[in-house]
Amino acid sequence: MNLVIQSLEPIADTHLKPLAALARSRQTERAAADGTVLKLSGADPLQRPDIDAYCGTHRLDYAFMAPGARLADFGLVAMDMDSTLITIECIDEIADFCGLKAEVAAITEASMRGEIKDFNESLTRRVALLKGLDASALERVYEERLRLSPGAETMLAEVRAAGLKTLLVSGGFTFFTEKLKARLGLDFTRANTLEIVDGKLTGKVIGEIVNAEVKARTLRETCAQLGIDPGRTIAMGDGSNDLKMMAEAGLSVAFRAKPVVREAATLALNFVGLDGLLKLF
């Protein structure tokens, strides 16, 4: 396998020998003009625990990749929204407008870490706390607080150029996914719909809740629509409700993810941006 090492800063020469020794690699080369990417050929994937420890200590991201792998080999990139494509958890920020951010954020964190097993219950509890809030809070969250994750637009432009379609599938809300679809030119979206009556949130979600099973099913259905195998999908996420979707994909990427997700994913991007995906190929 090739071992690809990435950093936000140029990787110091002092890392070259230790990494080559840990990976049992026969060749190391700088794979980016700015010095932020190393490629170690002939690396031993069984050395992953040692590589993981070294890279974590030195704030380096790593991935074992098959030689010759190309981005164009894939047909779809499926992404979570909150804390993956964007930097915030929208429901936490909405709750801030009714003075309940800390309470809602605690439930969100426990759910994403896998400590609350029933996502439907977790979401229902959180949304119920928003009852009576003026729906204008949603627009304020989008305009004032929602930010794309670093490298998001570069990543999307390059995957589109390589011929891949894009799917944004979220346990969050359609108010935000539809705005992002229009803004970023995404091909497909799926999320939850907040019920709004007379300009206020009712504290309820309309229709089927987008939980882990629905995320995985949406990926499969999108692949069927495109006529591709799920193995030609790249899935990116950060929370436990992304695990089933990521398990369907040929390549799974844990982005700034919870430990349970990092352990299950093909690779993790803990430090670099979403455009780190591009540098793997």
UniProtKB/TrEMBL annotation:
The active site is at D80, D82. Coiled coil: none annotated. SUPFAM superfamilies: HAD-like. Gene3D superfamilies: HAD superfamily/HAD-like. It catalyses: O-phospho-D-serine + H2O = D-serine + phosphate; O-phospho-L-serine + H2O = L-serine + phosphate. One of its GO terms (cellular component) is cytoplasm. Residues 3-51 form the DUF4072 domain. Pathway: Amino-acid biosynthesis; L-serine biosynthesis; L-serine from 3-phospho-D-glycerate: step 3/3. InterPro entries: DUF4072, HAD-like_SerB, HAD-like_sf, HAD_sf, PSP. Belongs to the HAD-like hydrolase superfamily. SerB family. This is Phosphoserine phosphatase. It comes from Caballeronia sordidicola (Burkholderia sordidicola).
